[in-house]
Amino acid sequence: MMKSNSYNDVMARKNEIMKSAVGIDYNMFESGSIAFDYEKMMIEAGYSLGEIIKIQIDQSVGNTPIIELKNFTKLSRRLAPEGKGARIFIKDEATNPSGSFKARRAAVSAYHAKKLGYKGVIAATSGNYGAAVASQAAMLGLKCIIVQECYDSNGKGQPEIIEKARKCEAFGAEVVQLTVGPELFYEFLKLLESTGYFNASLYTPFGIAGVETLGYEISQQFKAKEGRNPDVVVCTNAGGGNLTGTARGLIKADATETQVVGASVNLKGLHMASDSQFNRKSFTTGHTGFGIPFSTYPDRSDVPRSAGRPLRYMDRYVTVNQGEVFYITEALAQIEGLERGPAGNTSLTAAFSLAQEMDQDKIILVQETEYTGAGKHLQPQLGFAKSMGVEIIVGDPKDEKCGENIVLPEHPRLIKAIDLDMDKLRRSYIKNAVKDALNITDVDIKFLAEDARTDKAFVKESIELLNRRI
Amino acid sequence: MNAKKGDWVRIYKIVLESYERGANLPEDTKNVPLEMWDKGFLLDEKAAIGNEVSVETIIGRKITGELIEINPSYKISYGDCVTETLYIGKQLRDMLGGEYDEK
User: Fold this and answer.
1) Is B103 domain-assigned?
2) What pLDDT sits at residue B103?
3) ipTM rounded to 2 decimals
4) Which residue numbers of B have CB closer than 8 Å to A's CBs?
5) For the segment B45-74, what is each residue's pLDDT rounded down to a tens digit?
6) Which of A177, A273, A275 sits opposite B37 (nearest CB)?
7) Which residues of A touch B100 (CB under 8 A)?
8) Residue B100 above 80 pLDDT?
9) Residue A273 near chain B (CB below 8 Å)
């Protein structure tokens, strides 16, 4: 009998579709309540660091260069208090086969899909991950479908997303483009069910473990180059996998003193599922619209348990404005001779500000760059914003109102990374985690403390504030 | 313009009408259908723009939809000149000094 493809019927089959499309029985790691065994999941369902290094070398991924941005450092020292201004470095992940660090995640997912005998891979993404999966699928002879949220109801698409569709097709993938809305997941499930392909989710243990090599390489390269680990590593944060994987890799390299900072573009006030607001933003990823919900509720992803758990590893979380990132993108080209994509420069923008708080003998590293090209570049992105009625102003970034204007800083001293309140994020995470739980056990308290990087007393206090009993 | 069998075309389809959409959507999104675009080789002998057609996608899936474009192209570029950014390079080079020497 033909299965019904109505919205409700497909969504009701979600768990069985996912189980056969990911090949992981997540029940193995569940405790029965809030807690689950994260490390067991990462070990049993994933690969060891040594195995991943081998897979990535075989698939031409990783070992990207680290570049010292001497003119950025010089500039930040002109703006910093006396004696301040850490040396700024970037890891040039744009040199990966598909032009971003996402190749690391895709390499492992595609390898795993092929090993398990899947004929193809599917990923739901409007970002660089699509191109990464398509590129790795091309290398391994797998078929590939990428599902994108791309257009508003007037058929207008973000130039950056259209460029990514082009790149996916260049690698032989089929690209399914949709208008705005979370029911993309419904289309995604139907595709998984009808093709029997592997769900190359960003949030599986292999997807995250693929990024561990990034953190590991940072430590290895810095030890060889500078004789020590960087003091601060800044990671652009959206779904949480970039930060999680990098931090885990640093820990595996014993770089436990290195501070890990998350950075997102501030898109405050814009609703991510709104048709009319979709094209009023100029960043399609690396922004707070993903970064905050995925930090405070990681299991909202397309797998039952996300392996990306940024709060576990984050020392600080800062935001920067759209205009500031565009300014820094232009600066990178103009004074360092490196033309890279805007979204990848989110963490560089934060680092430029954070370096000014640090002593001159310290080192701050930005752990990614991304490719740039027609559509995915500050000119077409700003031009598109203007065509949507967003004003481009030169002034103080503090005056930026998301969806109404983009404020290019009139002077680089106005570029300021703004700290988010970590305890507020932790409380919000705890609130989401306990929401549907019938009872909260001691095991849960311990898990929540680890997952939110805090202590049990803080978890208990937060739960009491919610009027819940333990 | 007409397409013939084997032509590379773009198709369009409504996946969910507005009344079929999921819960908890903002009003503006709820009021419009969920739409889809895809590309493939035309399976029908011939078809005109606006016709309901079948195509085989690049990876071999057979799907249907409304024919909207033949030999679809990417309409992306470096966009119109955005003059607002022109001050940035000049400002930074001035700040760093001639040939970027320490002063």
Assistant:
1) no
2) 42
3) 0.95
4) 15-16, 20-22, 25-26, 28-29, 32-39, 57-61, 74-82, 84-85, 87-89, 91-93, 95-96, 100, 102
5) 999 999 999 999 999 999 999 999 999 999
6) A177
7) 71, 74, 335
8) no
9) yes
Residue A450 three-state SS: helix
Q: What is the token pair recorded at A53?
A: 């290094």
Comparing A67 with B103, the larger pLDDT belongs to A67
pLDDT higher than threshold 90 for residue B102: no
Q: What pLDDT sits at residue A1?
A: 61
For residue B12, the domain's CATH number is: 2.30.30
Please say whether the beta carbons of A202 and A23 come within 8 A. no
SS3 state at A388: coil
Residues of B in contact with A323 (CB under 8 A): none
What is the arithmetic mean of pLDDT over A85-100?
A: 98
Q: pLDDT-based confidence at A23, cuts 50/70/90?
A: confident
Residues of chain A contacting B37 with CB distance shorter than 8 Å: 150-151, 176-178
Judged by phi (left if over 0) then psi (alpha if -120 to 50, else beta), residue A254 lies in left
Mean pLDDT of all residues belonging to chain A: 96
Domain count of chain B?
1
Helices (H) and strands (E) in chain B, counts: 2, 6
Across the range A133-138, mean pLDDT stands at 98
Phi-psi region of A62 (alpha: psi -120 to 50; beta: other; left: phi over 0): left
pTM summary value: 0.96
Every domain of chain A and the residues it spans: 58-96+206-419
CB B100 within 8 A of CB A70: no
The pLDDT value given to residue B98: 65
Chain A closest-CA separation from residue B46 CA (Å): 23
Q: Residue B89 to residues A69, A76, A103, A344, B94: CA-CA distances in angstroms?
A: 16, 15, 31, 19, 9
Structural domain for B51, as ranges: 2-75
Decide if domain A58-96+206-419 falls under CATH 3.40.50.1100: yes
Q: What are A375's two structure tokens?
A: 């559509």
In Å, how far are A313, A401, B5 from B67, measured between CA atoms? 49, 40, 13
Structure tokens at A427: 């409380």
